[in-house]
Amino acid sequence: MINKQILITLSVLLIYFPSLLQSQDLPTNKISQLVEDLKKDRRGPYHRIKWFCKDGSIREPRDPCPDSIGGGIQHASYKDIVEKNAKEHHLFFGDILAFTDPSSFWDEKNAQSRLKQYQLARYLSSVDDGWILRKGRYYRGSVQSEDEEAWGIDFYKWLLADNKRIINNYYVIRQSLRDIPHDGDNNLAQQMRSESKVIADEFPDFMDLRVKIHGQPGREDIALVRNFRQQYATELTPELNQEFEKLEKTLLDFYAPVDFDRLTRQINKITTDTPTKQKILTFLEEYKNDERPENMVPAIADLLYAIREHSIDFKGGANRLILLDFSNELENILLRKSQEWKPDELQGLLKKIYALSYAAAGTGLVELWECTSINSLLETYISQDKLSIGDLTNFLETSRSILEWSTAMVKSKYEHDVNTYGSFEPKAYGFIDDRIRSSIALSMGESISRLGILLAEKTSLTNAVLTLSNQSSFRGLNPGYAYGELVVVKGTEEVEVNSDKIYVFQKPPSDLKPVAGIMTVAEGNLVSHVQLLARNLGIPNAALSDINLQELEAYSGQKVFYAVSNKGNVILKLEKNMSPQELALFEKEQRNTDLIEVPVDQIQLKNTAVLSMSNVNAKDSGKLCGPKAANLGQLKQMFPDHVVEGLVIPFGIFRTHMDQKMPNTEGSYWEFLNTMFAEASTMRSNAKDEKLIEEYQLQQLKTLREAIIKMPLSKEFTDQLKNQFTTIFGGAMGSVPVFLRSDTNMEDLKEFTGAGLNLTLFNIISENNIIEGIRKVWASPYTERSFKWRQKYLSNPENVYPSILIIPSVDVEYSGVMITKGINSGNNNDLTVAFSKGAGGAVDGQAAETRLITKSDDKLLAPSRETHYIRLPSSGGTKKYHTTFETPILNTKNIKELRKIASIIKKTIPEETASDYKGAYDVELGFKDDKLWLFQIRPFVENKRALSSAYLQSITPEIDYSRKLALTTKI
User: pTM of the prediction?
Assistant: First the structure.
């Protein structure tokens, strides 16, 4: 029986990136039908064969382009519907490269979408019998391979002549070299897997061997495939025999001995003489007679890194093309050799992981600066004779980070186009996994898993997740426990969540409603609104892999117990296996004690004047306005140069408008609201089903919300607002772009964060939009999501009062969140920060650059993998941009400024506000031209019950982190 262990640690953070072409805007049903039609069409996506002349003219097949106009080439034209799809939806089917404009194919303004679609089409063709070219590939003369290769060479000479394109897009360029014909392309690793998949789909008994080829490939696969073919010889059809012959040839080519002489000839074609070229030639000479994997793997990793670091030292596109083709060949050798290297001692395993982390940078899976930021730490450890459990844990966490960053790079670069194609061709979703398994991430994941298993044995810090075969990639994020139905949400499908269920997501929605527990493939970042809510409310939360998610599908719909300890180990068991102690955690009486009461006795509703934010401070929170405005006003007084001016629409103005008569009712808006709560109370006293009560309330809230959005605003109020705009912002309403932020009395509290529950409107400018926006913000606390969160965790959710904070837009270059403590370390002297480019950084779960900042150092916890961001033009609205990751977001000056302002906040806020609050703060902020701007501050709230739970403490093992292990320890 072939070992079916899948490398769990390969999968990480599936992040939805804001896209230039949203798949939901596509007529997916029509495109899906078109794809099926093209598969059956004998010409596929093509119309007729024609001559395409260099002067731009197109001629019939029997009328070739004359030499007098420069000649031309012959190939197929596209069907009208194919050209229409390209024009209307930016979808390119059956792309013929010859005579395609290089810059159009590179498609820079759409983040190389056209090039990536070409790669996707190649993948689909390999796994789906030609895909849209199932019959069209036999249309004679439609594509001329020699013309395609000649175009490919010219394309790369043009592309690689530009230094910036290489630096910014190293990973995508190297990957494209495996797919675009140019006489140096091959993708044997991908070909090997697609051919094995085709066989397994047709002959299920081959599935075990296919799983091995995909998960644990090795030279022994050649013999295994041959033996299988002999064993089942009488059952194989002629067509299957042909598939086996193709697979055997691919395996033989992939595992063929390294041809050092051919590689040397290849490098000698480079006309630029650089130290890196000499280093390559020296390597080829030295290892010609030494192919031991433990020697070759570190040497190849070092060489791949050097090639990337010095690629632009080679002059000219032609030289760089040879160099990068060689880099891909080196990676192919590394894939084989890393599978052959099987260390039997701890030190060998650490050295292998270290070498592969360097190779990750050399192949573009992580950026050079990311690798530099952590590899010195790994290097320090591998030179020791002994390491403490603490040091080994640090090594494991650091190397696991590199793996996660690597797989996140693949997803960030291709996910938009994969999701677009997946909406009409589901097989496209396999592309990203295929690319990850074609990379050194495969071997790195296996090695990190081995280290994780060893450490789990030595520390007893193990996961207990049902009966899953490999659990080392489950990683607790927030402590807590839950009981309920397990719901596994596949892909990016939308689902209506229930507060009594436990959800497993690829990525949780940024507007997540209450749930009992969550697991996510894409954790986003530590300080997103969803993560803060989970931490605040004691909702257990853990990260897992794509493959873990797939394995959990078998348990979807069953009742389970789920817990995450304070040190991050994860328990998931079926209801029938719960202990008496675990069952006792969910006794009704105990759970009801967790509700929080929000004080409302000091609310001042008689103040109906629009206020300058400079005139409010923290003492006004919950009285005149919500804590956003009050706390930002406090910051304005403390840091006048780092906080914008602002206007505050207090609770009193909202309540005055709610006292107006509500259309189609007998009373006011406020009376309608209170009648709803009174009726719900009556229904409960009459023992009505809670679900029916909730349905009634949600329907009434929908009616109220729709009425508020149309509510008339008093002339007195709008006149005040216009005057204050001119006075405070220096411009008339309609000339200054602003943010409108909901600011209720039921958020940013010491025990309940409420982060992201209500509406913020970005960069609106017109007077009409501002007036409409005020109504929308007032209505937002009555949305289903906001109501459900308050209803679940507050004892008096009906007493919600929204104020509104209006501040002028700051077009920050990057923005994010700072927590004035180490979230993972627990150290109150540290800072945890997460930043993304543009406005609104980190708060919506973006894959943000996350750092732990100490007094003397800063540690990269995760680099950004967010490819798109928004800026705030002075004309209002937002504008989307795409970005790359070759440089960090935060610089040294920014980090120094963050330390300084955090120190002042922690010391001064309690003094200025006469507060007894001693906890950390959650601060939203941004940088423009290296100047720091503060936008919000709130208490950073952690769930005390979860942190002090006797049960959670009981499942958290005591670990002696000072205990030493010899690096000669057998594994």
Answer: 0.83
